[in-house]
């Protein structure tokens, strides 16, 4: 009998080893763990507040954290949601899961990159780019605009990730917002007719272009940045940068405070910490993210936001557009 | 009816010798009992004749045909026209009684399979059981099916490996009587392995006594009973 | 009367606990769905397209299950029924694909196709999904049918050899005899293949599970996802229960406890044909994917195995610890469920585990979150218990079947003999049944350990914040990391799992050698 007790005791002590500490903050994270984890560790070291993170990634569709946040709605476990783009935050807002937050630090962020009620606050941004393999296509031969993708010269030569997921959804939704429904649908049908290859994720786009399987594809700046580090054959350009062009999509990271969260004070502390020049500088170095706060130091190989012509969209409007077009996108992808 | 000849057979399992220079001719059309304690190699003799194993050495002749030579099987089991009754009977559990009996006939593309099976089942009083599966039969019925399954192919020789070991005396004698009467009507070679000397003396036209992979005596029941061999005397007494 | 009820409650205590901890959360999701059903018009999700899709997915998975079972059975025959040289090594190598996650396997194969032919279009097809699933799941068939083959009494085969040729005997005697194992292998692989979304999603093939996943992750539409999952679960249940007769008779992962009298055939003359076939199979299912992972981890700008290990290190030990406790718990529950099913003829616990087994991982995760994320049960939700519960839900059924079959192979007479000798029931269980059953329990432990070590679908939904677990970490880091790092991590996880397999294999040899000497 003693042995049994001992076994059971050991079992419990091992399983329940994570005791609640007074100073902690729970963050659910859909930003790539490689880049976000070091920043969170720094916060832990500098403030003494223990960070408990749940990682997931938009590349693999954020199913984990998003469904968790939705299912936990009535008894929130998470303090801060750190997303790679504001779309997901908007889904949470529409389901009443987030809380507004305002502070000195949130004031640093330009209004354009925030929700009007501060339900989400943006920082460090990525942009959509065209990544290409120099062995397969010359820079001069590349399309200059998304709208060029329907040209016969590019038939079967380019790839985008499944538009149902990740930042690709965002890019397509923004296109619908800018061009209007019918033109955008037409364009989608045309690129399909022009042999677009649908990859599983942005990472998959990057990989296929890098390997030389496909000449070029659409992805995010951080993927392009990684690809350049990994291979000399790869380079990237921003699309629609002509004077009359519609500009390229800029996607800030987005933070939301969760409603009725267990450690909301520490959650606020973490948000303030992330909304700083220091954090933006770190993310610029590690994943080529472009700072939103003016005067943040930049490495030479990361472009400044000022140098890019942004696509003029309203993020919250675009989120609404997305919800409307999603069933159609599903059909489009499954055709 | 031709004899079954085994000449200078050596056989071993994993380095352990079971048969040593075994030579014997089993008379055609007669019942020979192989008698001996367990582990003496008597089952192995049957398996070699049947073709379930190849001997290490020596040759075997069945139906005037050399079936093994120098450790190689020349004629496979199913072409030797021998029947085998296994100790555990080995009735195929996924076949009915009818299917168990008919299976071999069908494999040999025999004619009138239905009639032959029916006759055989009648002979063993199994007609009412033909749609049953083995697990639905009594112990005695299972024995009957096993024997019927072999005899329906009209084998030149029937090899029986202690088939009646676990069955009560009344059923056993009834089955034996049945078998012997069939044998009398149409003689075929029977080699019957047992460790029960009474049974052997009872039914065997001749008896082969084995111990440790060798024949220590052979002859008719009279000769065996009166043998002066020490092992034999003690074995028969116990 | 009171005592009788007491006894009944005590005997069924574990069933009640399992019911409460595992099935009630699922039932609550069901109830909520039913209450909602009128409002959301659930039937509208089940249009013609959905039904067509489930038929297509079933066809795809049935093809996989059939191919995998055929290949597995053929391998099983040569590895378990012949003296083929090197068969132990073959067996060990052929089991490796089970240890590689389907997603990594699919990626590796696509990369390989590109490396060899410069084109990967052929992989992005139904055929690609079938090929990858078949290669991943045939080892399961090999284990199941192989063990069934060794359990056929040799005299049944020999009686066949007396009347017909070897080839016909195999088709007419041996194959019908292992039909239960064949069926259970087929159905098990069917369920596994139906349940996996990662491979078809990667190859761009729409299956029913991909559809459920899309409803969850792109639309966050629980009602649609749950309605469709219910349809999937219903179909699986009907399939499994319709074959319950075979399944319950199947030699499901049995391992023979006593010296088996299985017939072993000599393979003379044409041995090289078999060796070549095995070599091809091993190259396809194991060497190629491992080669590509190795190639990719070494072909980056710098060698990153070291940094991959640094990233994984904290997660590895946590994962092993958790998989150990998970496998232990699951084996105990499997023993309990198997005993009730086989000896007490009460299938309830077993059916409970079966339902959880065929439930899509995401649904199990959602059910757990909704049920356990309450102030009263928060202590479970915020601890690793929740991950263990996920493991039990996903793999309890497998353990129950392995142990149940082990129990079936032990003649009741052995226990009855103990009873008439006046042995107390507890001692009968501990001193007769458990020692005889130890090989089955061991297999159940090892297999569930390996499965727990790689479980991702439910774990990623419920793991407590701040915990690091190996499959989750590989999954989340892989997304944007350089290929070399991703491949290195996959390779490390494969090596760790393989290390434990070898370790258990050797431990098993020592343990059971001692037993058989006694």
What can you see in these coordinates?
The complex is a heterotrimer of chains A (335), B (238) and C (518). Chain A has 335 residues and is of the alpha/beta class. Chain A has helices at 2-15, 33-47, 63-71, 86-94, 166-179, 181-193, 202-211, 221-230, 264-274, 277-287, 315-334, and strands at residues 24-29, 50-55, 80-83, 98-99, 121-133, 158-161, 197-199, 216-220, 234-237, 250-258. Chain A has 2 domains: 10-125 and 251-300, Periplasmic binding protein-like II (D-Maltodextrin-Binding Protein, domain 2), CATH 3.40.190; 127-249 and 325-334, D-Maltodextrin-Binding Protein, domain 2, CATH 3.40.190. Chain A is 41% helix and 17% strand. In chain A, strands 1, 2, 3, 4, 5, 6, 7, 8, 9 and 10 form a 10-stranded mixed beta sheet that branches. The longest helix of chain A is centred in the last third of the chain and has 20 residues, at 315-334. Chain A is globular and about 60 Å long. The model of chain A has no long low-confidence stretch (mean pLDDT 89). Helices cover 34% and strands 28% of the residues of chain B. In chain B, helix 2 (97-107) crosses helix 3 (113-123), helix 2 runs parallel beside helix 4 (139-151) and helix 4 (139-151) runs parallel beside helix 5. The termini of chain B are far apart. Chain C has one domain: MetI-like (MetI-like fold), CATH 1.10.3720.10. Chain C is built from 25 helices and no strands. In chain C, helix 6 (102-117) crosses helix 7 (126-150), helix 12 (208-217) packs antiparallel against helix 13 (222-242) and helix 17 crosses helix 20. Chain C is globular, with a radius of gyration of 24 Å. Chain C starts with a helix and ends with a helix. Chains in contact: A-C, B-C. At the A-C interface, helix 1, strand 1, helix 2, strand 2 and helix 3 of A face helix 12, helix 18, helix 19 and helix 24 of C.
